[in-house]
Amino acid sequence: xxxxxxxxxxxxxxxxxxxxxxxxxxxxxxxxxxxxxxxxxxxxxxxxxxxxxxxxxxxxxxxxxxxxxxxxxxxxxxxxxxxxxxxxxxxxxxxxxxxxxxxxxxxxxxxxxxxxxxxxxxxxxxxxxxxxxxxxxxxxxxxxxxxxxxxxxxxxxxxxxxxxxxxxxxxxxxxxxxxxxxxxxxxxxxxxxxxxxxxxxxxxxxxxxxxxxxxxxxxxxxxxxxxxxxxxxxxxxxxxxxxxxxxxxxxxxxxxxxxxxxxxxxxxxxxxxxxxxxxxxxxxxxxxxxxxxxxxxxxxxxxxxxxxxxxxxxxxxxxxxxxxxxxxxxxxxxxxxxxxxxxxxxxxxxxxxxxxxxxxxxxxxxxxxxxxxxxxxxxxxxxxxxxxxxxxxxxxxxxxxxxxxxxxxxxxxxxxxxxxxxxxxxxxxxxxxxxxxxxxxxxxxxxxxxxxxxxxxxxxxxxxxxxxxxxxxxxxxxxxxxxxxxxxxxxxxxxxx
Length: 497
Description:
Layout lengths: L2 H18 L6 H15 L6 H27 L7 H29 L10 H21 L8 H14 L12 H15 L7 H14 L4 E3 L10 E4 L8 E2 L12 E4 L1 H15 L14 H16 L9 E11 L1 H8 L4 H5 L3 E9 L2 E6 L12 E5 L7 E12 L2 E10 L3 E7 L9 E6 L10 E5 L7 E6 L5 E13 L3 E8 L5
Antiparallel strand pairs: 1-4, 2-3, 2-4, 5-6, 5-8, 6-7, 7-10, 8-9, 9-10, 11-12, 11-14, 12-13, 13-16, 14-15, 15-16
Helix pairs in contact: 1-2, 1-3, 2-3, 2-4, 3-4, 3-5, 3-8, 4-5, 5-6, 5-7, 6-7, 9-10
């Protein structure tokens, strides 16, 4: 062995020793080692063969470390603690460095500097896309959007795999490994993970790991009556755009994506969850049958019929008072007087608004235990009524800065308690809000209650704010379900039992 080879071997020996060791239970220690060794790998005195060899091993190790980070982020509320936010940020950055390494190897392979069974565009592209998929998942778990240049890199690796298709393959075909990893990224983005809780994101990610391959990627434009498609302009490096929201531009090279088959599979699983069949395999302990069906219904709508914005958002900037969480809203509305009610609220700033929603940003105080799907009340002036909203998405680039997207569900609310029957077993009364009819959402009075409240068609309603009022209600329709709340229309039962 030459002196130069000995030097290169000595340089990578610590990295190889770490990669050969068992994964430590200390996730922070493993993450620090990953970051340190990735920085060592890019040193100019590390040979290309050594770099390639180490990167292949780092691929598996990094996914294992990221899996541990996922578990922590799944049970954390937003905004993250400073330490957990730092871990997530370092993980996203480390995964990005691995992708850059694959970009370098791909460039070498494409220029025929080196090509082996493992070092070919198909293998490189599929692995790089798998790392990008994990990077996107961790970013959303941390309340962030896709990293800078994420989509441009994803589309470039997909194209590289497409260019490597065998001569006998039909035009536009892509090797299976590359296509599967790319479909995961597109299907995950189409599920709008910014509107899911950490646990929901993790389960959707696991679900798509085995089912995303059933979605479709095509270079052919869909028919005019096919509205469940997304279009992608790889030259612009943007996320998939729903055709129902914006028509694709008239340019060459567009990619089209459909998750309709995913939606059909979700429908089959929902029917199984709501039927009397055995518990489907693969559901985590925390996700019950009803919760799984609720989650699948929500993502199914995004896959089959992506929503389009009916009203333009207007940029604005004014202060509002915000009360977060159904429990806090219920307690606040029972308090007389502005001063007492404002104890439950903090100051936020409206960034933009439309007739059906807002985007708001935190100004003062420390927001905590925020989650997509939770209830929120806001008002501009002390004499204004509280407007009730549902949190549709959360962005928190740093623990100190939080931005929420809100959907208005009512312009006032009344605190009550409700109780549903569940066979012969007694169930406790739960705090809820009675909402007036809102033409855009419900024609009858509605009740906003904690998730899991609804168990039967009839329920008891008790109001004691001004005078005691007891009635039996009859559920008409279940209109909205999230991980935190459910909204259903009802009427007072004229023939109580």
